[in-house]
Amino acid sequence: MDFVRYAERSAGLLNTELADVEALVGHLEGRDWLHEQCTGRDLVTLRRFQRELRPVFEASAADDHHGVIEGLNALMVRHPITPRISDHAPGDLHLHVATKTASVADLLVGEALLGLATLVCDLGPTRLGVCSSAPCTHVFVDTSPNQSRRYCSDRCSSRANVAAYRARQKAESASV
Asked: Which residue ranges does the record assign to the Zinc finger CGNR domain (predicted)?
């Protein structure tokens, strides 16, 4: 199990509008074996989980260590995780979250929580954030060495930099 990848997938899940089963299937790009298992019930569970998980990212962005830890702990009580050692790749023992009988929602929630909990323990509770580019409200996981990430994507970063540049140009021309 790649905990950083699972943590990043949790941010992707929060940034996905789950309007219908097709949107969920789109979110699962590259995980084709899950597509046929997606149901309306998964949508209901995942939409609720999105509402429950977002405050954890917001607490991290606000440097609220206690809020991150308590939020994740409460979610892990509400959504118990059952990790299992997998040996499907010879010589590469690793953890998976759910068994074959778990729903798509159970799998995604479990991956998100185990990934985020491990990331918070390894890198600290302030590695989750909310994009600084208005009006974007997407979230992200900051794995940068100096914990300097402020935007959810290169697109939002570029948009903010261009806006700042134009504001400086306008201020300079106004002062001349």
From this structure: 127-169
Name the fold adopted by 3-124. Jann2411-like fold (1.10.3300)
Q: What is the pLDDT of residue 158?
A: 85
Extract the tokens encoding 28: 């699962």
DSSP state of 97: S
Q: Which amino acid is at 66?
A: H
pLDDT tens digit string along 108-125?
999 999 999 999 999 999
- The DSSP element (H or E) to which 40 belongs, if any, is helix 40-61
Amino acid at 151: Y
Q: Give the span between the Cα atoms of 176 and 172, in whole angstroms.
A: 6
**Separation between Cα atoms, residue 158 and residue 160, nearest integer Å:** 5
Residue 49 has a pLDDT of 98
Query: What is each CA distance from 107 to 29, 59, 82, 102, 156, in whole angstroms?
Result: 15, 24, 10, 6, 30
